[in-house]
Amino acid sequence: MIPRAFTLLETLLAAALGSIVVLVAAGLMWSISATDRRLEVRYRQLAEIRGVRLTMERAFGSLLMSEQPIPNPPREQTNTLRWDHLKSLRQRGSEEIPPDRLRLGVSGGGVAPGLDVPLQRLEIVLTDPPVPSPKAQAAADAMVNQLLSASTSRRSSRRTPESGDAKAGGDDRNRREGDARTPGQGEADRLAEQAAQEEDADFAVRATRGAFELRPGMGDEVDSSLELWWVPLPRVGTSPDEVDAMSVLDEPYRIAKELRSMRWRVFRERVWHNELAATWSEELPAYIEVDVVTTGGLTANWLFEVGYARGPELRRRSTPADPNAPAVPTDSSGKPQTPPPAGGGK
User: Fold this and answer.
1) Domain-by-domain residue ranges, the chain?
2) What pLDDT was estimated at residue 201?
């Protein structure tokens, strides 16, 4: 019996069915891979949105505003409101206004891709950095250690291990030595102790100045993405040589990199503003609104309450007293005596 072979029609039909099965399997695999990529991008952008929210929450809850008194209008302008007076001083660039502690405005770095919206820049002074800061943490640990060691040394210097007759003899000896001191020695010791306390207080200043900046993306989507960066800045009053010597500034920290747009708005005087300059806590807005749109189409809108503290941004250490300086004579109450006028006046 002669075996029967496949006809041409059967071969073509089998090839077509096999090609359909292969195409369906390839399409299914491609769809699964594309879905995985979209889910990965969505998860990454959701994580970045969460990071932006936490960073903004930490920043707006730890503002450090000026502790200096607010300049009042002159007497001839008694009818002028204090805030109108501050506005006029800012417009004139008066030296009565200390450096801004919060400044929101246009960064000058271009516009958002595809939106023609100017990019913003937010410069603020905070009590603590809003992002991980190894150098700031190391400086804080060193500050705590120095304060603890100074406090321990002062307590140990004041403590006397003597007891009984020896303690009584030591007290008599200290009393005799105190009587033998110059009249101004007690005042000099008090001033030295006060200077040490002021030095510790100066060292305990907590202030961080930095800026949130929007920059064009550096990834594959350079023309359509933005990046949000935290840029540490030297505190106002610090010279460049001091910044180089201390080396306390961290590197810029990237918070998010797949943003389509981001906007800050402040609610003040019942109006929303895209720009603001504030030095005192009385100038702060009631709320700060943040709008974020990612390249994947995710949107977020937050309304943050403002929390603040008052304090100096930079305070110089006190100049130590000269131990070789002549003692100032004091009276029985401990106040320095005023020398008599030249010529022997009565």
Assistant:
1) 43-70+80-137+204-310
2) 44
